[in-house]
Amino acid sequence: MEFLLLLGSPLAGAAVLAVLGARRFAPELNIAFSLVTFLAACALTVHVVSAGTLTFARDQFFIDAFNVFLVTLTALVGLTTAVFSRPYMRVEMEHGRVRAPQLRLYHSMYQLFMTTMLVALTTNNMGLLWVAMEAATLSTVLLVTLYRTGASLEAGWKYFVLCGVGIAQALFGTILLYFAAEHVLGAEGVSALLWTHLNGVKGQLEPKVLSLAFVFLLVGYGTKVGLAPLHNWLPDAHAEGPTPISAVLSGLLLNVALYAVVRCKVLVEGSLHSALPAQMLMGFGLLSVVLAAFFLWRQRDIKRLFAYSSIEHMGIITFAFGMGGAVANFAALLHMTVHSLTKSAIFFTAGHAAQKSGSQLMDHIRGLITLSPTIGWGLMMGSLAILGVPPFGVFASEFLILTTAMREQPWATPILLTALAVAFAAIFGRVQPMVFGETTAKRLPHPPALLPVFLHLSLVLALGLYIPPYLADWYRAAARLIGGG
Amino acid sequence: MAGVPLDIQLLNLCAALLLLLSFAMLSQRRIVNLVNLLALQGTVLFIATLLIAWRTRQPHLYLSAVLTLALKVMLLPYLLHRLIRRLEVYWDAEPLLNISGTMLIGVLIVVFSFGLAQPISALASTATRNAIGIAVAVVLLSFLTMITRRKAMSQVVGFLSMENGLFFGAMSATYGMPMVVEFGVALDVLVAVLVLGIFFFQIREQFDSLDLHHLESLREDASSRRSE
Amino acid sequence: MRPIEIITQLLELVVALAAAPLFVGWINQCRAWLQNRSAPSVWLPYRNIRKLFHKDAVIAEGASRLFRLAPYIVFAAMVVAAGIIPSMGTRLPLTQVADAIALVGLLATARVFMSLAAMDTGTAFGTLGARREMMVGFLAEPALLMVIFVASLISATTALPAITEHLATQTLGLYPSLAFTAVAFLMVLLAENARIPVDNPATHLELTMIHEATLLEYSARHLALMEWASALKLFNYACIGFALFIPWGVSTRGSAPVALLASIPLLALKLAAAGALLAVIEMVSAKLRVFRAPEFLATAFLFAVLGLLVHLLLGA
Amino acid sequence: MVPVLHSPLDACLTLLALWGLIGLAGLLRPTSLRYVGRTLFPLGAVCSLALAAVALSSLGAPTERAVLILGLPDLPMHLRRDALSSFFLFLLGAASAGISVFAAGYFRRGHGTSAGLLCLQYHLFLASMGFLLLADDAYAFMVAWETMALSSYFLVTTQHSLAEIRRAGFLYLLIAHVGALAILLAFGVMQGGSWQFTFDAMRHAHLTPVWAAAAFLLALLGFGAKAGLVPLHVWLPEAHPAAPSPVSALMSGVMLKTAVYGVLRVTFDLLGAPQWWWGVVALTVGLFSALYGAVFAAAQTDMKRLLAWSSIENVGIIFTGLGLAIVFHGAGMPGLAALALIAVLYHALNHSFMKSLLFCGTGAVLHSTGERNLGRLGGLIHRMPWVAWLTLVGALALAGLPPLNGFVSEWLLLQAFLFAHQVPQTFVNMLLPLGAALVALAAALAAYVMVKFFGVIFLGQPREAALLRAHDASVLERIGLAWLALGCITLGLIPTQVVGALRTVVRQLAHVDLPDPTAPWWLLEPLPGRLASYSGLVFLLAVAAVVLLTIFGVRLFYHQRVRRAAPWDCGFARLDPRMQDTAEGFGQPIRHIFEPFFAMTRELPSPFDRAPRYRVSIADRIWQRLYEPLGSLVQRVADSFSVLQQGRIATYLLYSFVTLVVLLAVVL
C-alpha cells in the first residue's frame, strides 16, 4: 500500500502537473505530491525496520536495509527541494528567465525524475534498474536546458550524449550479467535478473563473464556517478540548469547511480573472490578526488565549484566502498547521507545568493552576511560542513574513512590528505569573501525559503554529534549487506 | 560451412552484414546515407531476430522482432530523415580523424572484441555464440563513430547503431532479455529520439547550425567563462 | 644561620660598597700612569658621589615615576649581586636564594631598568643609549651565562660558592675550556662595563657613547646612585672573574674564621692586578665603531660556547 | 555550585555547559552592550574562576572517567579527567577569568559582529577548549579541536569588512584544518588495528617503532601547526593582530597551550615509550622557532604583531623543553625528564598569564588611542598609568627577569640543560649545549623586545598629538589586567609550591618524578644533592630591603629636593617627539645582526635629498621561500589538469572509450 503510494504519488504528480504545472498554485501542488511521497517513504521505513526486507509485485521490487534509507533520504530531499523551488522559480519567472510552458515542464519533469529515482532504488530487477537510470537522464536533460541559453543547451547536450553512451555500456553489462545468470538460474526469463536471486547464487556465476560485465557496468553507471575521467558532463549540467535541479542531481542522482554500482559490486565480488573490483573502485575514487580537488582551484562560477566538490565527495565514497569492510562501508553510507543533505542545502543557499546578486560568478557575489545573514550563515556553515569540519556529520564519516585508510591503505593517505587540503583552500577561499565583506546583494520579490537549508544542516549537525541507535543499526545492516573488504 | 543448418548460416551472415554496415557507417560522411545505413542495420537486426525466434520458438522474440521492425526500421529513420530535411544538414564536416586511420583503428577494435568475446562464446549454449564477438565489435565501432564525428546528427546515428549492437548482443548471447526490460529499453530509445528532436530545434534556434564546435564553450582551460 | 655566615655576608656587602669606587679610581690612576699624565686622586669617585648627593635633583619634564625609581632599583640590584658573589668567603646565606643564573638575571634587571629610565625622558640620546645598552646586553648576557655554564659543568652546580670551592679546593688542574671562557669573560666584562674597545667611560662624545647616554638626564642623588651602581657593577664583574678563574684564597667552608680576614688583603691584591690589567687593555686597544660591537660580542659568545664544547669533548 | 556536585569531572562539565548557556544567552539581546558586556562576560569570568578552583582542588585527585551518549554509534564520547587535564583546565580557568573580565570592559562600541554573537563565539571557544582537555577518545578530541579552531576563526574575523583580516582568518583556518587532518591520521595510526578510538585502547595498542614514530611525527606536525612552530607559524602573526585583543589574549595565552597539551598527551600518555630521537626532532624545531620568533619580534613595528612573534618564541622554548624531556625519558633519566617536563608545564602556565596580560594591555591602548603602530605611540604612562604599570609587570616577566614568573621556568629549563651531559648519545651531548646557548640568547632577546615594547609605547614623549587625549582603561579592564599581573607575580614568588603541584602531574603523566625536596618551603631546590636553589620571595625581599634602605638613607643623610626642568639632552635646544628612537630604529641592530633571517626592502635617501625619506620593510623568508612556491605549484598543477577538460564532446567520449578498453584489457 505505502509502496504503491511511494511510486504512484510522484507518477500521478507528473501527470497532473503536466497539465496544471503553470498555474499559480502549481508549486504548492508540487510540494503536496512530494510530501505524500515522503510520508509513504516514512511509513515504509517503519515497516522495514519492524518486518525486515519486503518484496512487491512478484519480487520485481524489494526494499532491504540498504535501499530503504536511500529511499527515505531521496523522498526527504525531494520534498525540501520542492519547498525551496517554490520561491526560487517564482523569482525566475519575475526575472523572465522562465516562461509558463517551461514551468509546466519543470514541475512535471521534477515529479517524473523523483519517480525514476524511486523506481531505480526499489527495483529488484537489474534490467529495470537500467531502464530507470536511463529514464532519469531523459527526464532531467530537458530541465538542464530549461533556460534555453547557449550554455545550457551545450550542457544538456553533453549530459545527454555522455550519459546516454555510458548507460549503453551499462546495458551491455546487464546483458552479460543476465547471460551469466541464465546458466545458473535457467532461462525462466524473469528471475534471472532479480538481484535477490542473483545474490543467492552469486558464488556460482561465471567469474570471467562477471568481471567483464562489471567493467561495463562500472563505466556505465560510473559515468552517472561522475567518476573521473567520466565526469565531464557533471559540472556543466549542474552549473547551467536551474538550481533545484542541481540540488537533486547532486543530492540524489549521484547517490542512486553509486547505489547501482555498489549493488553490482556485491554480485561481482561474490563470484570473483578477488580484490579486482575493490581495486577498481579505489582507483576511480582516488582519481576523482584528486582531479576534482585541483579543478576546484580554478572555478569562478559558484555552482560549478560545488559541482566539482560533489565529484570529490563521490570519489571519497567510492574509495571507501572500495576499501570495504564494516567500518569503511558504514562510513561510506553515512557519507552518502550527509553529503546529499549538505550539498543540496549548499545549492539552495547558492541559488538564492546568485539570485540576490544577479550572477553566478563568485566575483560578483559579496558580503551576503550583511544583507541577508541567514543565507550568509547558511552558505558558510554548509561549506564548512562539506569541507569536513566537525561537529558536522561529514566529518564523522571522513574521520572513519581516513583512519581506516591510514591502517588499510597507507599509501593512499598522502594523496587524500593533499586533495582534501587543496579542496579546503579552494572552496573556503572562495566562500569567505562571498559571505563576508561589503555586500553586492539586493532584496528579492519573494522571501527565500530557508527552512530546507537549516533543516538539512541541523540534520547533518545532529548526525555528527549523535547517531540514534536504530539509524546506526540500519547502517550496520546495510554495511553487512554490502559486505566486501 | 557444410553440416551447419541453414538458419545458423543465415544468422552468421546477418552478423557479418552488421559488422560490414558499421564499418560503412564509420567511413560514411553523408548524413542521409548514414541514416539509411542505420535503417539497413535495423532491417538486418529484424531478420536476425525473426530467425532466432523461428529457431527457438519463443513467442516474445517475435514480439521484439516486430518491435524492432516498427521502431528501428521505420519510425526512427523516418524521424531522422524529417529532421534532416527540416534542419538542412546533409553533410558532416571533415571527421576529426581521417577515414583510413579510423578504418585501421576499427580493424584493431574488431580483433580486440573477438578476443573479448572468446570466454563468453565459449560459455554460450546458443547457436549464435560466434556472433557475440561481432555484437561487441559493433558496439565499440559505433562508439568510435561517435568520437570521430562533428555533427550532432551523426553522433545520434552512432548512438542508435550502438543500441542496435547491444540489442544484437542480447539476442545472440541469451535470445533476448526478459520482456519487461525489452519494453523498457525500446521505450527509452523512443523517448531518447524524441528528446533529441526537441534538442536539435533548440540548438538550431540558438546557433543556427548543428555543428558541435559551437558546443565547446563550457571548458576549464579557457581563461575566463562568460557570466550568465 | 650561623654567625660566621652573617659576618661573611655583611663583610662582602660592606667591602663591595666601600671598595667599588676605589677600584674605579685605581683603574683611572693606572691609565693616567700609562698615559704618563698626573692622575686625579684615587678618592675622586668618592668625592664625586658625595658632591652629587648634596646637589638638588633636576628631573626632566615628562619623566615619570619610573625615572626616579630606576636608580634605586639598579643600585639595589648591584648591591644584592655583590652579596651573592663569593669574593672573600663562600659562606654566604644569600647564595642559596640566588644562584649564578639568578645573578645573570639580576644584572639583566638592572640593565633593563636603566634602559627604560633612559627612554622615559624621550630624548634623542636617551633612547639611542637605551637601544645600544640593550644591544650590548642581549649579546653579552648569554655569553656570560655560557661562561658560568662551563664552570658549573665542571663542578656540577650553579651555586657560585660551590663552584668556587670546587675550583679552589681541588689540586690545580688545567682546564682548556676555562681558558676559552676566560677570554670570553674578559670580553664580556669590557663590554658590560662600558670600557674601551666597546665604549669609552671617559667621554660624552655623543655619537659613540653607550652607557653614558643612558645617564644623561640624571643628576644629583640619582646620578650618584647610578655612578655608584656602575662602579659596583665593575667590581662585581671583577669578583665573578676571581670566583671563577682565580678562586684561591677565598675562605671556604671548614676553613677557620680567621681565613676570612686573610682573604681581604688577597682580594685587594687581585683587584689591584685586575685594575692594572684593565688599564693596559684599554690603553692598547682602540675604540670600535658601534656597529662593530655586535661582532666583538658575538666572538665572546662564540668563545664561551667553544669552551662548553671543549669541556664536553675533553671532559675537562 | 561546586560543592553540590559529587565529582570534579561533573563540576567541570557543568561549568563548560554553563559557558555554553551564557554564550547562547548572548543571542537573546545581541545588540545590547550593557547586557552582554556588564552581565554575561562577568558571569563567564565567574565560571572561569570556579573552573580554576575545581581543577586546582582536583589536581591530586584520582583519575575519573565518564561516557556521554553523544558521539558515533560504536564510539560514544569518552571523558577523562586526570592530573594533566586538571592542570591545563586550571590554566584555562585562571587565565580566562582575567581575560573575560577585561573583555567585559573591552567590547564597547559594536565591532563587525554583533556583541551577542561575539559572546556566543567567545564562550563556545572557551567551552570547546575545556572539552578538548577532557576528551578521552579520538572523535571527541577532534570535534572539540575543530570547534575550537572554528569559533576562534569567527572571532578573528570579527571585523570581516577588512580584506587583510579576511586573509588572516583564511590562512589561520586553512593551516588549522591541515593540522587537524594530520592529527586525525596520527590517531588513525595509534588505534593500531583495534577499531577502538578510545584513548584507553590506544594506550594499550602495541605499535611497531616505525608506526609509533609515524604517529609522533604526524602529531608533532598537527599540533605544531596549531602551536605556531616554525615553519608552520605563518598564520600566527597574521591572526593574532587581526583578532580583538581579548581574543588574541585567549588564543595566544590558552589556545597555543592546548597544542602543548596534545603533544604531551600523545607522546607520554598514548604512545607511552617515546624514543630519544623524537626528542631531538622536537628540540631542534623548538630551538629554531624560539630564535626565529625572538628575532622577528624584535624587528616588528606593530605592537600586536610583536607580541604574536614573541608567542612563537615562547612556544619554541616550550617545545625545546619538551624535546629535552623526551630525550631524557628515552635515555632513561627519569629525574631530569621530570625536571624538563615541569619546566615545560611551568613555562606554559607562565606564558598564558604574561602574554594574556600584555595582549590585554595592548587592547586597552588600542582602545584609547586607536593605534597599533608603535611609530605613533609613546608617553602613555602619564595618560594611562594603570595600564602602563600593570603592563610593565607582564613585560618584565616576559623578559625573564627575577623575581617574576618568567624567570623561574627558564631557570628550571636551564638547570635541565645544565645536567644533560650524561645522555648516552654523544652527538646529542654536543647538541644540548648549543641548545642551552640558543635558549639563553632567545631569553636575552626577549628582554630586548620587551624594553622596546614597553619603552616605545608607554615611555618618552607622545609621538602624536592625539595621544594627549588618551584615557585610562575602564574599571573592569583594570581588574582583569590586575588579576593577570597578580598571577605573574604570585607564580614567581612561590615556585616551590607550583613545582610541588606539577610533580603530581608529571608523576601521573610520564611516571617520572623528582626526589622529594629537602629544602624549606620558601626555597626551590628541584634536584637535592645538586647545589642549585632559588627563592623568588627572599630574593624580592632582599632587593626591596636594599631599595628601601637606600631611599631611607638618602632621605636621612641628605635631602629630597627636586626641581623640574626641560630635558638636557647634551644641551640640545629644541626637542621634539620625532627625535626619539622609533620602533624601526630600535629594530635596526637586530636587522643588522640577523640579516640573513629577513627579506628586507630598504629605501635610502641620497645625502642631497631636500626631503629625505627612509623606509625599510621586512618580510618572512619562509613565507617567500616555502608558501608562495607551494601556492604557485598548486596553481600550475591545476592549470595543467584543466587541459583535460577542453569542452569538446568527442574528447570526452574518447576518455570513456579509452577507460572502457583499458579496464577490459585489465580484466582479460
What would the keywords be for this entry?
heterotetramer; A: 485 residues; mainly alpha; two-stranded antiparallel sheet; 19 helices; 2 strands; 78% helix; 1% strand; D: 668 residues; two-stranded antiparallel ribbon; 23 helices
What order do the helices and strands come in, and which of them pair?
The complex is a heterotetramer of chains A (485), B (228), C (316) and D (668).
Chain B lengths: L5 H22 L3 H26 L2 H29 L11 H25 L7 H18 L3 H23 L4 H29 L21
Helix pairs in contact in B: 1-2, 1-5, 2-3, 2-6, 3-7, 4-5, 5-6
Chain C lengths: L2 H32 L9 H11 L2 E4 L4 H20 L9 H4 L2 H21 L3 H31 L5 H10 L6 H17 L18 H5 L4 H26 L11 H28 L8 H22 L2
Helix pairs in contact in C: 1-3, 1-10, 1-11, 2-10, 3-5, 3-10, 5-6, 6-8, 6-12, 8-10, 8-12
Chain D lengths: L7 H18 L7 H25 L6 E9 L2 E7 L1 H24 L8 H20 L3 H19 L6 H28 L8 H6 L4 H19 L7 H8 L2 H26 L5 H24 L3 H28 L3 H36 L10 H4 L1 H14 L6 H14 L7 H33 L16 H19 L1 H16 L25 H22 L4 E4 L17 H11 L4 E6 L11 E6 H22 L6 H19 L1
Antiparallel strand pairs in D: 1-2, 4-5
Helix pairs in contact in D: 1-2, 1-4, 2-3, 2-4, 3-4, 3-10, 3-13, 3-18, 4-5, 4-10, 5-6, 5-10, 6-8, 6-9, 8-10, 9-10, 9-12, 10-12, 10-13, 11-12, 11-17, 12-13, 12-17, 13-15, 13-16, 13-18, 13-19, 15-17, 15-18, 16-17, 16-18
Short description:
By secondary structure, chain A is an all-alpha fold.
How would you portray this structure in words?
The complex is a heterotetramer of chains A (485), B (228), C (316) and D (668). With 228 residues, chain B is mainly alpha-helical. Chain B is 75% helix and 0% strand. Chain B has helices at 6-27, 31-56, 59-87, 99-123, 131-148, 152-174, 179-207. The longest helix of chain B has 29 residues, at 59-87. Chain B is globular and about 55 Å long. Chain C has a domain at 3-141 and 204-285. Chain C is globular, with a radius of gyration of 19 Å. Chain C starts with a helix and ends with a helix. Chain C is built from 12 helices and 1 strand. Chain D is mainly α and 668 residues long. In chain D, 68% of the residues lie in helices and 5% in strands. Chain D has helices spanning 8-25, 33-57, 83-106, 115-134, 138-156, 163-190, 199-204, 209-227, 235-242, 245-270, 276-299, 303-330, 334-369, 380-383, 385-398, 405-418, 426-458, 475-493, 495-510, 536-557, 583-593, 621-642, 649-667; strands at 64-72, 75-81, 562-565, 598-603, 615-620. Chain D starts with 7 loop residues before the first helix and ends with a helix. At the C-D interface, strand 1, helix 3, helix 4, helix 5 and helix 6 of C face helix 16, helix 17, helix 20, strand 3 and helix 21 of D. Strand 1 of chain C pairs parallel with strand 3 (562-565) of chain D, so a sheet runs across the interface.
